[in-house]
């Protein structure tokens, strides 16, 4: 046993070396060079950041990004909560069936799903036709190439990321606690708001935070369902590079996006107390 | 009472079921919708289609550009899956078994590519590869895909390795097996489902990747999502519905294999 443990230190380094080298060369270095470029192109200094936060068109991009992120988070929470609740309530078989529908939707090609919404929401699409046939609207609504399309498409994509953590959280709640509350005389409404909802809070919080972070960095769906006038940060970054070859500005906005993401991710880690590797390692 | 099926009032229960039905339809329908449209005859994607046809499939399979991009996708995804899994296996062993400080930090570092927005990774790697003259190569595609596949591979291998009781492997060593032999013959068969799902999900991540691939692509080398992307920017032709259907079917196929692997390991 002693021999095994004395060799361990050496082993860990060798085992971890390939992945660390890989991520250092192809992940950290490129990110670092992005940071460097944001400070040095076209000249050394913080002028890219100053321009980003002072020019009204750029501020509008930041505003759009946060607006879409917030709305998508709220909508997917509103859709995800009843679904998670229902999965928890249902007999096991049905619950498992619904979870596999959610997983299927989550792992189906993002591009395929976005294309589907593009077709569904276009002015001659099935959504507009149905609404017109029902007499709710007279003229087709403009639902693509604007923020409405982006929000519908992205909420659709984000629902699974709310439901899965929230459902896990709800399944862990002891139904006895709720029963105890109602035995003590609490009305259904009180039990819901004072007992059930607070117990769901960790799931709600981690799901919402994850969705918000993901929404800020989403490129594909906004680029296809959104319009040219109301751009979000990821599109802006790509545009600066592909159309204007403005690496300084693109890098500065990329660094800003990373900073926001990492701060929110840090919060997320704080909420999630259990570590996946440290706790309960067995040996 | 809000969590037990029987004691909910019928009003609340039925409204909850209706809402769930609507949401499940909302989640599943766009997927089936696009598969149905790939067989529709309407160029303008009218639904329900006036008649059914296979002509879009013919267009897809007759066009060398679509076929080549599909082949490139398969090639890139296979290589990504192999490399990501091979990098993740030793790292997972070190993280789960090792007793050294900073394991949590390393784990966070390895899963970071999942957190950093893909568009940032795309731009960063594109900038570096552009300077090295590597864009448009198979190497660029595979390396950049491995970055984002690694977190998925690591997480699934670590999860299966954590459940394995190391003393069984130690027993084999005490009985005279070499450590490597014990790992291959005792540990590996048990964690195999985790390794397989690592490979499958890495494949899926690469197969589906758009943003990085659009940046890495050249007119001579592109993956299926890149071809879809550039076509989509021009028009909504039903041929994209065909490509989407193929992407969906492959994802579905891989998910079925993954759940099969998981079930088998549960029965053990």
Automatic annotation (TrEMBL), chain B:
Keywords: Cell inner membrane, Cell membrane, Membrane, Transmembrane, Transmembrane helix, Transport. Residues 70-258 form the ABC transmembrane type-1 domain. It is found in: Cell inner membrane; Cell membrane. The chain crosses the membrane at residues 16-39, 76-96, 105-126, 138-158, 236-261. It comes from the Bacteria. GO terms for cellular component: plasma membrane. SUPFAM superfamilies: MetI-like (SSF161098). Belongs to the binding-protein-dependent transport system permease family. This is Binding-protein-dependent transport systems inner membrane component. It comes from Marinomonas sp. (strain MWYL1).
